[in-house]
């Protein structure tokens, strides 16, 4: 190749590489407006537990001998348990909390070795919460990605789990990105752009909610607002990006659950389009656990079909 041609190719490659490295930093990421500290959003009735230097929002009701801990799914919060907390608390002690990056839990922006948004660190966090609350053994009820956290917790700390109820658990559709993509998400360039990318959830939230319900016409304005409220929390976009880029799938989770010596119940709706109903059927079969499929119900049985949900929970817990 002629020397001039080589120079042109060389310059083109340099420009291309520079654009990849520096280009994302040239994209402006405006500050979010009208956000508030989580403590202000929680108001006087809000309760926080300080875990490793940041505040985790939680609600606690009831005083029964058995304690139930509720773990919500992706994009949700303790709000997603609103229909069942009070009925459950008449028979059990109930704790619901906002997982890191969601609800009214504080979004840390800096940390040393312990990443509060990491998958395994979520197990550490729940262990410390139980210790601070002096809860030696609990029943875990996890919905969707919260079911994945509950399952991981039970595998790692089975002595702290009395029973496990997995509601449309995202075991096969593990939260987290593919292996080759995750390193890219943790680059300085994507850390700059990431918060802007995840802000799209604010506009696409209603579409995701409609997918989660068998009958979306029953979704009220109050429900929509309840889901949107955490999107006014300070640094919600940065926290969600940290969570997304920190997730780690666990491909052998169903095998580990099958070996777990604890009562497990799988619950799903017959019209789950988020974590397909067939995935819950498959999980129940693979781990030899009882399965309850709620008719005319979607991905969120505790919200859309609370009476049926409470019935299957009570029936299961009465046997342990």
Write the layout of secondary structure elements.
Blueprint: H1 3-26, H2 38-42, E1 47-51, E2 54-61, E3 67-71, H3 85-89, E4 93-97, H4 119-132, E5 138-143, H5 145-156, E6 161-167, H6 182-185, H7 188-198, H8 201-212, H9 221-228, H10 236-246, H11 253-258, E7 264-269, H12 277-287, E8 291-294, H13 301-304, H14 306-317
Parallel strand pairs: 3-4, 3-5, 5-6, 6-7, 7-8
Antiparallel strand pairs: 1-2, 2-4
Mind explaining what this structure looks like?
Helix 5 (145-156) links the parallel strand 5 and strand 6. Helix content is 43%, strand content 14%. The chain is built from 14 helices and eight strands. The protein has one domain (42-317): Rossmann fold (3-Layer(aba) Sandwich), CATH 3.40.50. The chain is globular. With 320 residues, the protein is an alpha/beta fold. It has an eight-stranded mixed beta sheet with strand order 1-2-4-3-5-6-7-8, with helices on both faces.
